[in-house]
Amino acid sequence: MKIKIPMTSTLQERWKRWQHGLVQSLLLYHGREDHATVRVLLLACIGTVAMPLYYVIWHHFFPQDFESLPLRLLGILLCAVGLFARQFSRQVLNLYLLVTLSYIFPFFFTLMFLMNHGSGVWSESLLIGLVVLFHFDTGLALRAYAIGTLLACTAAISQGAGDALLSRQVLQQLPIHWFTIAVLSAAKISRHVLAQEKLTGMGAGLATVAHELRTPLTSVDANVRGMLRLMADQRSERIPIVDALARIQFEVRHMNHMIDLFLLSATAVRQNLRPVEMVSMESVVESVLKRYPFSSQKQQKMVRLEVRRNFHFSGQTELAVVVLLNLMRNALRAVQRAGKGRVRIVIDGSQRMPRLLFIDTGCGIAMQHMPMIFRRFYSHPPHNGAGIGLALCQEIMEAWGASIRCVSRESAYAVFILEFPAR
Prior knowledge:
Elements: H1 4-29, H2 36-61, H3 69-82, H4 90-115, H5 120-133, H6 138-158, H7 168-171, H8 174-230, H9 239-270, E1 277-280, H10 281-291, H11 297-301, E2 303-309, E3 312-315, H12 317-338, E4 343-348, E5 355-360, H13 389-399, E6 403-409, E7 413-419
């Protein structure tokens, strides 16, 4: 009996971890802000299992008039390729999504629906497929729907099932499908509007806080400077007081910096993010290093810049500063929480796609939190900010045709990789 207790406890812990992971995956699946790679992995996992499973069900247990093993195998192959989505670039990921979504949901489901003469099983399956399809980006879903449906109709005609296209069973499904597409598209617009309203409210709140804090902070800073000048002649006797005043002055500068960062972030949320100028990456990084309020020279020496080759990119200087300030703050916080580590910034324009690496050897990011770090309003630890920093960074980068991703190992390191389009 004593031997079974640890086993039961271990199983319970694994079950809780599995539940936690499942809930996180489901949360990541819904909403426009979800990470595309995570959704591809979910689609690939489900498709790889469901394709052969439903072949067995519809072929042996509840036989249908038409079933095709080769079409199933092609679907399984496409889903299996998606299991390696973490290695895809943004362009390859978008192309893979278009091909796979076009094949599986509109083409395969529509063809089966037509070849089985509009049977109830495939009518419901096609409707569910459309619901899943339009949880992806609306533009992508519409392209996939048009391509897949057209190819399915062509294939059905070539198989001698062209008369099914004008049958009552098929035509009466079209209003239902189009209504479903319209409702799902409207629901996504509503979610987007709600998120924008929340961001606008946060921006207004931050602006109010900034306005209310500026005056007292400026007054405190001026008084500290005056006291430091008066005590300059007695510095040797008043070192503790001088240190305390210097610390107050640093806190004031730090608060002013944070207000600047909040205001820049709030402004970036509301303004046009598209690129309007050519920006030097080295100049932006040097500007950030000068503007960041390091708590001490020791902290400043923790940050090292390595320029392998400078490069220019299409963007906006102030928005680039917002991105790098957010990454700098997160990296130094990770080092502070771990009580160890350094921060290294690498500018590497020698790659085919120029990139910037933000590397810290602090506390790292746990594997279960990795899929959600770019999700808006998500922060870890929970009290660690409002959760808009990394989401805003990703939104800015995508507006420039660039990408940002993270590779991390808990308690070891975190590497943020910013890749820009090849010039």
